[in-house]
Amino acid sequence: MTITTLVCFQAYFHFVMWAVLASDPRFDVPVVNVTVVAGETAVLPCSVEYLGKYQVVWMDKKLSLLTLENRRVIDDARVSVERPYVANWNLHIRDVTSDDQGLYMCQINTDPVKIKQVVLYVQVPSKIIDHLSSDDMELREGDTVLLVCNVTGVPHPNVTWYRLSKKGKNGREKIGMSGEVLKIRNISRYCDDIYECVAFNGVPPTVSRQIKVSVQFPPEVRVRNKRMGQEIGKMTILECTVTASPLGATHWEKNSNRIENSWKYRAEAYNEDEHTITLSLRIRAVEISDFGEYTCVASNHLGSDQEKMILYEHNGNRIRPASKPDKQNGGNPPLLSHSNQTPPRNRVTTPMNEVWLPGGGQGQSESSAALGSGCKKPITDLLFSCFSLLLAISQVCCI
């Protein structure tokens, strides 16, 4: 290498060093926005070119000094400076919370000071505040109810309401309203259900809360048959349905006297749904003294209701003229019965809600029994039933 070449190389080296030292430090990007979900690690980028003899510091929105070069100054172990490359002075904040949101500044101590701003946005998943939200509620028909679902999150969550069928038939039905409060005016028993609020703000996961609304109302009693006929010595069953919330107390009365369970009388309740029961009264070996007026009674703390029915004697061995009133039956036209040629049937329904039971058993509509059964009658039984019906009609027409 000649002396001329060496002199040129040294001159070039000094020129480059002078150019580097003479250049002012600069940031790669002046302003950056960073969005992170709460609980994650936020990386606030800061890349400096031509730093030279100057120093890099980080400050927060309160102008508190966080770091000096690569050393942490603040007493917060979550904060550190990470330098994957020489020019990088990235600020890391681990386990970010909503309090960390705001403006951060990467500064170079030049004169004047050079600043790069980084805005940190912290998203917070939706959360339902239990102690500020509605619990299960019991109301009376006609009341106005406010269902509250108090939620927080960043951004603020959108709340959607659904109605869930407790019977599981209709599934989930969306209510055409949104917001943290659902108002139901003049509530009725048909509003008795489970309501669900669902909150979501675009940050997983979605959160929800279920509120059970129970609507209370006084009892309503219905008897299935206003009049029922039965032969002496047979067994019979009287039935009524009671709808109430809460169900409360139920019993049968005869001539205004309460009937207690014994070998002769047996009252039993069967659940139809959450608010409805069937109350039956089984009477063994019917006697003359058993005929008369029976009352189905139900009560709860909101009120009471009752409905009456008549059990009367029926003679199944002859047909009485329907045109003449029956003095023993309160002046009402007697029911047509089958002759001895017609085999007895367990269940017979006659018009005007009157039932007699020649074979003993429960007074029930024959059509209802057929609809409620999953089995079909044999063809021979159907033919025999048709023959019996035609025979009975012919006897009636001959009178």
UniProtKB/TrEMBL annotation:
Pfam family, one: V-set
Domain Ig-like positions: 25-116, 125-214, 219-311
Superkingdom assignment: Eukaryota
Region spans: Disordered: 318-370
This protein's record includes keyword Kinase: no
Stretch forming the signal peptide: 1-22
Biased composition (Polar residues): 337-352
Cellular component annotations (GO), alphabetically ordered: neuron projection
The entry's keywords: Disulfide bond, Immunoglobulin domain, Repeat, Signal
InterPro entries, alphabetized: Ig-like_dom, Ig-like_dom_sf, Ig-like_fold, Ig_I-set, Ig_sub, Ig_sub2, Ig_V-set, Neural/epithelial_adhesion
Protein name: Opioid-binding protein/cell adhesion molecule homolog
Organism listed in the record: Octopus sinensis
Name of the gene this protein is made from: LOC115210932
